[in-house]
Amino acid sequence: MADEHPFLTGSDRDRVLLAVAELCAEQGYGELRMEAIAARAGVTAGRLDELFGDKEEATRAAIEAILMAVITLSGRLYSPDRSEPESYLLGIEGILELMAANPAFAYVSYVTARQMAPPRLREGLETGAQLLAAMLERMWEYSSEAGRPSSAARAALGGAEAVVRREIARGRTVDLPRLAPDFIYAAAVPFLGQEEALRLARASRDRLAESGTPE
Amino acid sequence: METDQRNALFLAMLDELAQRGYEEASVERVRQAAGVSTGEFEAEFNDKDDCLFAAYDWITDVVVEKASAGCDSGEPWPDRVRLGLERLLEEVAAQPRLAEVLTRAFPGIRPSAYERYVALLGRFVPFMHEGRDYSEVEEELPREVELLAVGAAEAIIFGEVDAGRAERLPRMMPEILFSVLVPFMGPDRAADAMRSAAAAT
Amino acid sequence: MACLGVISTGPDVLSVSDRDRILQAMAECCAEHGYRATTVNAILERAGVERESFEALFTDKEDCALAALNKILSETVARISMLDLRTESEMEKQVREIQAILQLLAARASFARLGCVEARQLGSARMRESYEAAARVLALMIERAGSGTPWGASGVTARAALGGAEALARRELAIGGAGNLPKLLPDFVYGVLVPFVGQQEALRQAKLAARVAEEE
Q1: How far is CA A101 from CA A37, A163, C123, in A?
Q2: A134: helix, coil or strand?
Q3: Where does the pLDDT of residue C2 fall: very low under 50, low under 70, confident under 90, or very high at 90 and above?
Q4: Chain C nearest C-alpha distance from B144 (Å)
Q5: Model ipTM value
Q6: What letter would DSSP give residue B141?
Q7: What is the CATH number assigned to the segment(s) B3-200?
Q8: Average pLDDT, chain B
Q9: For residue C191, which of C180, C203, C179, C176 has the smallest C-alpha distance?
Q10: Per-domain residue ranges of chain B
């Protein structure tokens, strides 16, 4: 389990989070029941109650777990030896791979939190979107492109999010990493210009080919 | 103006702020709501701002008084903190709109108004000082521990009020108590206090 | 660090520094007069840029404030991420991260005030959301670091520990500047660690942190 879900351990809490994510993906948030979560996670009802008061809290924690995984991932990729834009774009690949490896969590974060659940659950997703947009705006420091509107970052991310949501909703999470070159191009072009954006997209495509992922 | 009338005026002023915001808040409406004549008003206050700031000073006094009532009761400090916190959270939950004025509508007017909010938090700091006697360790605790404890409670209270969930606060009392006590008593004993507080409710 | 792209400095090209100057001016004006009272004209004057330059980049005052908030949020995340912490223990890592944040806030005092004070209570709803996102990220990091320790971590505990740190930061920012923040590293370290590792260990780390703060 640790390989498939690298950001989860075998702890009770993490098994519950995985159970919540899977059940949400299978049945939807509305149908979620604490008894079913406890059963899937292999914990007693009492233990589940200790960990999370209700299903909203449990689902919230599942969303925050993936948010934390994204933050940790960015942490690992940013390095003094690599330019920030490159780090960010590698982060895009990393996030897509994370989603592909944890499809139930991807589903909960993108689909459930947006549509079928109470507003509190959207907070985690909004934080993630905010963070990604803020980090993308750092590209400004490296940009020669003049007078780009500040909404460029949000627009690029919004476009990517829409595609990601569609693929997740269609059960094609495993294919998400293939979208990396396109996303990288879209994210880079407002700040770095077409030529540089194309170069980075090509590099991403090469990495995909190396890892054996067909496009 | 009689004290009761002035207090009614203050409450009406704060309510007006909550309902209409600072720009649209009308002294006229407030005076009429409180049954205060123009003459009576102008005898004590120059303008809207004057009255608003006085109202905030008054309500913050009330808040501090209520939270600290029974502070000389002779009970151990952790119990007094629990009681004060309990009372404070109940008041906030019972009057969410007033809580919103205290934490957002008034401080948001301008920096000088915000400073009054910061001063309000500062007034709880002395109540924390006695906590140092309850430390598990011999060594002196860092200087700013009192403010850390007050800030811990403030973050949770502010967050719930802001999200429109003030009614949840009394239920959260044990958890908030833990965070207030833990810098002074360590997690073991703070958790004990939290558990007895949870059992008592 | 290798940079992608070339920074052009011709006078007829809107250089990167214009954006930076505007954001700096935004942060400073807010710190001095508050967000509400800050006008685009005041920002233009402080930054020494023309209105066209501003309008090419931002739709309005709020847009500019949000960009300034994104700047301090992302710079905080980037700084923490780029710390070379391979040889440190978990707790030492946390202390270093806290130190990095305090140093950044001290170096970017106006942005610090914008993020901790203006965005929280004196700005627009969208600014508030930006503040909340930052707070949530930091609280999650505290929670995660705390989850491996004896007393574990809870969402409320982590958010409350952050709240204590915020109160201390706000006080310093109010009394005249963020310059003192790095010297308060021991207090910040104690407050963030004690719920998770206990008083003894938290004090030990605070003492070590005091030495670290003195060295820098």
Answers
A1: 21, 18, 40
A2: helix
A3: very low
A4: 6
A5: 0.93
A6: P
A7: 1.10.357.10
A8: 94
A9: C203
A10: 3-200
Q: What percent of chain B shows pLDDT beyond 90?
A: 94
Phi, psi of A4 (to 5 degrees): -65, -40
Q: Map out the domains of chain A as residue ranges.
A: 12-210
Query: For C16-215, CATH number?
Result: 1.10.357.10
Q: What does the pLDDT look like over C165-212, one tens digit per residue?
A: 999 999 999 887 799 999 999 999 999 999 999 999 999 999 999 988
Contact C137 A131 (CB under 8 A): yes
Look up the CATH architecture of domain A12-210: Orthogonal Bundle (1.10)
Contact C77 A131 (CB under 8 A): yes
Q: For C116-143, write each residue's pLDDT tens digit.
A: 999 999 999 999 999 999 999 999 889 8
Nearest C-alpha in B relative to C186? B142
Measured CA to CA, the distance from residue A26 to residue A33 in angstroms comes to 13
pLDDT mean for each 10 residues of chain A (215 residues): 59 92 89 95 92 89 88 80 84 91 88 72 83 84 67 78 88 92 88 88 92 67
How many Å apart are CA C204 and CA C189, to the nearest integer? 10
| Distance set, CA C19 to CA A76, C77, C164 (Å) | 29, 20, 34
Tokens of A53: 């008061």
Question: Which of A60, A126, A130 is best to mutate for the C interface (most C CBs within 10 A)?
Answer: A130
**Residue located via tokens 């009338």:** B5
- How far is A98 from A6, CA to CA, in rounded Å? 9
For residues A127 and A133, give the distance between their C-alpha atoms in angstroms, rounded to a whole number.
10
CB pairs under 8 A between A and C: 121
Q: What dihedral do alpha carbons B100, C133, A10, C200 form, nearest 10°? A: -70
Specify the amino acid at residue C83: L
C70 vs A72, A77, A137: nearest CB: A137
Per-residue pLDDT band for C12 (boundaries 50, 70, 90) equals very low
List CB contacts (< 8 A) between A149 and chain C. Answer: 56-59
List, in order, residues 6 or more apart from C40 with CB less than 8 Å away: C51, C54, C60, C61, C64
N- to C-terminal Cα separation, chain A: 27
Determine the Cα–Cα distance for residues A143 and A150; give it in Å rounded to an integer.
13
CA dihedral B70, B72, B77, B82 (to 10 degrees): 10
Burial class (CB in 10 A: 0-12, 13-18, 19+), B1: middle
